[in-house]
Amino acid sequence: MVGGAPTILTLNLTVLSRKNNMNNAIRPYQVPVGNENSLFTLVENRTAYTYDSCELNVFETHQQAKDVKLVFNDFVFTSMLRGKKVMHLENKEAFDYLPGESVIVGPNEVMEIDFPEAKKGQPTQCIALAISQQLIDFTLDMLNEKHPKVIEQDQWKIDPSIHHIINNQELINTVDRIIKISRTEDSSTKDLYVDLAMKEMIIRLMQTQARHVFTSSPKTLASHHPLAYAIHIIQNKINEKIDFDRLANAACMSRATFFKKFKEAFGFTPGQYVLSERIKLAKKWLKKPNCSISEACYNSGFENLSHFTSTFKKEEGVSPSGYKKNYQGNGSFLN
């Protein structure tokens, strides 16, 4: 059984067995909030599901509170479900913590938390996954042995400096499985299901961190990392035709190896990354008042207007014309 049960420094708990990001926030499975009359406390009431390698905690707060202290013995992955917190972590500036975001916290690191908006009928809710070091080490050793990094001296590891994360669907899908297994599964293999999902979640977390590092500063890394060099080329030529064979050659790999290592490192293929960058660029063009749908299409590297329209709608849930119309109506609420 994982030794990650939290120590709450300022309250008692009960245990059982971004601004623009908000509209498109990718948040975990929505756990129903508790009936206030059945809770032991209205501040960080806790429901826990304990397994051999981890512990899932669901916290909810139903009234404003300040300086609530919380610490776990193990590494913790947290993700917001609803409401707002203000997080104070050791040696870091305070920050707002909102649905669609996750935060990782090291073993025995004290979290000081404010709940400025929590109230009756509008609680703040968050999950915290305490993960045993043994499971983390096992997963890292497996990856380093069977899926080594592109640069030989690099190792798979969780980067504690990248602690405040914007969720992506792949990461949150693994969290969803753990929550749903905890709430609905009632079999002797429950621990095994959670263990498998936790290993994938650890991998998805590292891929999410790698996305942040490599896509935010590829130029800095390009001189000594082949995948960063490839991303740098993609970003500079995103409105042009991308030749993946040339891209693989630039990274000094065969096409097959390049695709394999890119997917391992970031959780998406080069083609998926190119598409996401083109959609991102198209959204910028669509926000320009005098830019037509056709101009947004071709300026973003798409070669076919029909393909652009169908792809944009698939990825964003709205057509390019609908996105443009919505932005002109309330642009501050769109990414």
What does this structure look like?
The chain has 3 domains: 7-212, Regulatory protein AraC (Jelly Rolls, Sandwich), CATH 2.60.120.280; 217-267; 271-333, Arc Repressor Mutant, subunit A (Orthogonal Bundle), CATH 1.10.10. The longest helix is centred in the middle third of the chain and has 27 residues, at 190-216. α1 crosses α3, α2 (169-184) runs antiparallel to α3 and α6 (244-250) packs across α7. β6 (85-89) and β7 (95-97) form a beta hairpin. It contains 11 helices and 11 strands. The strands form 2 sheets. Strands 2-3-10-5-8-11 form a 6-stranded antiparallel sheet. It has a 5-stranded antiparallel sheet with strand order 1-4-9-6-7, with no helix packed on it. The radius of gyration is 22 Å and the shape is globular. By secondary structure, the chain is α+β, with helices and mostly antiparallel strands. Helices cover 41% and strands 18% of the residues.
- Counting DSSP H or I runs of 4 or more residues, the number of helices is 11
Low-pLDDT runs of 5+ residues are: 4-23
* Amino-to-carboxy terminus distance: 42 Å
The percent range for strand residues is 15-25%
The rough form would be described as: globular
What is the CATH third-level topology name of the largest domain?
A: Jelly Rolls
Approximate helicity band = 40-55%
In summary, what is this structure?
InterPro entries: AraC_XylS_family_regulators (IPR050204), Homeodomain-like_sf (IPR009057), HTH_AraC (IPR018060), HTH_AraC-typ_CS (IPR018062), Tscrpt_reg_HTH_AraC_N (IPR009594). GO terms for molecular function: DNA-binding transcription factor activity; sequence-specific DNA binding. The chain has 335 residues and is α+β, with helices and mostly antiparallel strands.
